[in-house]
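Project channel, design review

CF: Before we commit to the Alkalicoccobacillus plakortidis constructs, I'd like one complete example in the thread so the newer folks can see what an input/output pair looks like. Taking Oxidoreductase.
RD: sounds good, go ahead.
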Amino acid sequence: MKKFAITLSSIMIIGLTVGMVMQQEAMTTLTTQTQSEKLAEQVQEAEEQEPVAPVTDQVVDYSINNEEFLVTFDQGENWIGVPIEPQTLFTGEYTGSQQELINDSYVLTNDRAIFLYAVNQGNGITVHTISTTDQGQSWQETPISNIESRPTLRFRKMDLLNEQFGYLIFSGERTMSSESGYVYLTNDGGESWTLVGIPDTLRLIADGGFINESTGFLSYGTINPDAPDLYVTNDAGTSWTWSEVHVPDEYGEIFVQAEAPFMRDDQYILHVNQGPNGDYLGGRVKGEFHSEDEGLTWEFVEEVEPDELH
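CF: and here is what came back for Oxidoreductase:
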C-alpha cells in the first residue's frame, strides 16, 4: 500500500511537471507570436505612413503633412516639428488647400524662421508669431494682439528687411466693404512687435509694406476699385499721408489698384494693377510709376508685362 502511494505520488509529480513545461512552451510560443505580430504591424504602419512632402524642394523648406507642421534646413535630411497646431496657420478668411502656407505670412531663411498664426479664443482670436534663430533647436512664441472683438483675420503680410527690422500688417473685423487694419514693427528680428498708427480709413487693405525703417505704404480698395488709394508714412507709422498717383486719362479706368511700392536701383517703383475685374490686354498688364519724393507723388512711366515685373 505504501509503495502504491509513493508510485501514485511520483506519477502525479511527473504529470504536473510535464504540464507546467508544456504550458510554459505554449506561453513562450504565444509571446513570440505576439511580438512578431506587433513587429509586423509596426513595419506595416511605417510602410503605410506618407513620406514628408516638401513644398518647394529648396534647401530651407516646410511641409504640412499628417497634421504636423515641419521645417527643414538641409533639404529634407532632417525635419523639425514646429510646436503649433497646423490649422492655426490658416485661421481667418482663407480658402486654400492648407497644403501650402498663405503667401507673405511667414519668413523662412537659413538663419531665421517666423510664422504668423492665430488661435480662436471664444468670441475672438489671439494673433501670435512663433520663431527660431537656431534652426529649430528652440522656439519663441510671441503674442501680437488679443483681438476679442475681431472674430477673424483677412489680410496678412509679414517680412523682415534685415536682421533687425521688419513689419507685420493684418486686418480684421470685416463688415461688407470695411474693416480695421493693424501695423506692427519689429526692431529685434521679430522677438517683439510694436503697434504703430494707420491711415484714417476703414476700406479693405489691398496691399502694404515697408521699404526701409521709416518709409512704408498701405494700399486700399479690393471690391471694385476705381482709382489707386495709396498712403505713405515716412516716420515709421507715426503719421500717414495720402499718396498722389497720377494716372494718365487714357488709363484712368484701367490701372486702379496700387500694389506695395518697392526699390529698384535706388528708384521708388509702384505697380498699379487692373483690380479683380480688369480685362485690358488680358487683365495682367500693369502700370509702372516712379516717385522722386519718397512716395508722396507718383508719375506714370510705362506699361509692364507680367514677365517684366520687378
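RD: helpful, thanks. The first helix runs from residue 2 to 48.
CF: Helices lie at 2-48.
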